[in-house]
Specification:
By secondary structure, the protein is mainly alpha-helical. The chain is built from 15 helices and eleven strands. The protein has three domains: 82 residues, no CATH class; 76 residues, no CATH class; 220 residues, no CATH class.
Length: 445
Amino acid sequence: MAARGVWELDPGATAAYTAKAMHPVFVTIPGWGFKILVPLMILWGMYSLAVSAHRKAPPPPDKKKGADGGELTPEKKGFELPADNPTNAVISILIGFGVFAYASPLVINGSAIDKAVTVLKGFIQGANWRAEWQSLPIYSYGVMLGLSLVVGWFLVLGLTEKQGLPRDKMADCYVFTAFMAVAGSRVLYILTNLSEFPDLWSMLQLRSGGLVAYGGFLGGLLGSIVYLRRNGFSLWKWADAAVPALGTGLMITRLGCYMYGCDFGAPLKPGAPGWLQHLGTFPHWHNNHGSPAWQQHVAMGFRTTRETCEAAYHGLWNSAQNLCHIPSSAEHSVPVHPTQLYESLTGLSIFAALMFIWSRRKFEGQVFLSFWILYGVARSLLEIIRDDAERGTVGNLSTSQFIGIVTALIAVPFYLYLRKNSAAAQPVNFFDLLPRFKANDGAKA
């Protein structure tokens, strides 16, 4: 029976399971916040361009002489803001105008040039700045994705620096790789769910649809290859440094999936432990909107026996398709395997394993190929209990299961080959990457 706030799994049981207060919206940015953010983004981009141009200009002659007649090197004084490269500066400016076009009360129509002119004119007009701007909900998955990129930044740059790679170039490589990873994850989602996207514009709307982890891994790998080849750096050194961040990324982003309720598993058996059923229960938010698990269980149904459907889940049995549906009045989904949490723990375990391998690394490429083997096997097993309908299929396998099996099979012979033929590599201890706080010898308590 469905009651507000409680989903009773068994009419004869005394335990009931309260709805988890999960919601896709993590925080909402008010319109006035964008009025601050837009000029800051544009000013920062302009500042970065100016500093980049100044760096490329020849330094002015210094006529000051020292006591010995030699020229004095001028000392830098005061606080200096860091500057980015020109590409990121332009991106910052474009993001600023893009946010303005989204949040300000503009009517944008016509060709691309007409739209750009409308945005520029609207930016100059004071009436648009005095009007009320649109707020923007920030979703849990987006927050966790951003957090994973920040964590990955420090981890990857720390490992590349230990190998003697230039920090500035590796920072640029990380940004380009991250961009390609997001693009790749979006492309794979589109390819596996083509019916959701009637036109190109719908494909570019990241707030509609989703992302696929394997698409991100493959897109990031392609981006890394392109950048490193153009700049003459070793792929294997970078790849070994980058893949541990994929472990932390899985750990963090899957928590975002859990808060949203996507990427869920198959229904649990009624006799499953109560704590597990509690973790796997996803709510109906409001009206006819709910977590993806609730929506699928209402609209598409799920596989179980008729007895379990009617007795344990109080569902509606569809005899024609042998599927169980819950009524739209249900406050919760049927308890399912919280595969998001399973994969989050998998990401943490893979990260720990990769850092252990890093501490004993023998050859370049060892850590990179170890990731593809470990994740390929783990993901293939997790896919057995996944039940969300948006995964796509290749034969009898899900898309990610197919990719996991193929990449693991390819990685094994590569691993054996590189173990004999790749350059020797220096190990790195994870604890050497952590910040050290050394006492000042001259300081007194």
